[in-house]
Amino acid sequence: MSDLFVARSLEEIRFWSRIMKEHSLFLRLGFRCEDTQLIHEANHFYAIFEEIERKSHAFQTNADPQTIKQFNVEVYTAASHIWAFKRKVLGLILSCQLPGANNFPLLVDHVSREANYFRNRLAELNAGRLEPLPDAIIDENVFFLKIMADHAKFIGHLLDPSERKLVDQARNFSHDFDQLVFQAIDLSSMRPQSQTVPLLSQFVDQNKVSVKSLRDFKKTARDLINDCRIKSIIHPLLADHVFREAEHFLVILDMFEHFLQGPKRSES
Ligand SMILES: [Fe+2]
Ligand SMILES: [Fe+2]
């Protein structure tokens, strides 16, 4: 049980600390030259999460659970601070105090939601109580489907408008994922009666099909951007970042699928 706690804590921190580090970079790139204080703060968070990432890779899975529990607390604090920074930036943008800066409000809100998610995962791990599976299935899907819908919108808006075909594709993904978000919210509102194995299985299967196709689209976009074959203002690292987040969601969906199949069916 302790080994599992250590393994899961390290997995979460390795994935999300790199994500938080990259958010710091994306935010910094979107500030104006004169926003020196904000640039300084973003660089500060970059260094913090780079160090957390380094430490998380230095720990082995046989590390002392008490040490990892302490590490989780430390990372929780860092995630809380970057969350507060992101919300502060959102406030500045929405009150028109950063005219001409290049971060969309939805993007800043989005990265703050990811920080909040990370922080909650750490709190859950340390409290040793995970949500009951049927609730986790719905809540994780509501969270990640919205994340995926946002990604499609960012890609659509950061591609050059002359890339008409790709912009159309991104817009279609945005629409599909908005529909999936609403479906997930409907299923959530029908709780607990909606939490039957057949309904949850169908929900997970259907979402998986859409996430796979979005993941493939992101992979194509990432490769095209890397090879400088399309016109956009998407940073290559951002293209890879959203691809990795789709992969992460697919791992979670696979895990749910596995649990829902139960021990009997998974043997076949
Ligand atoms: Fe992200
Ligand atoms: Fe994201």
Automatic annotation (TrEMBL):
This chain's source organism reads Paenibacillus tyrfis
**Which SUPFAM superfamilies has this protein been placed in?**
Bacillus cereus metalloprotein-like (SSF158430)
**Entries under Gene3D superfamilies matching the protein:** Protein of unknown function DUF2935
Which InterPro entries has this protein been placed in? Answer: CotB-like
Q: What is this protein called?
A: DUF2935 domain-containing protein
Q: Which Pfam families match?
A: DUF2935 (PF11155)
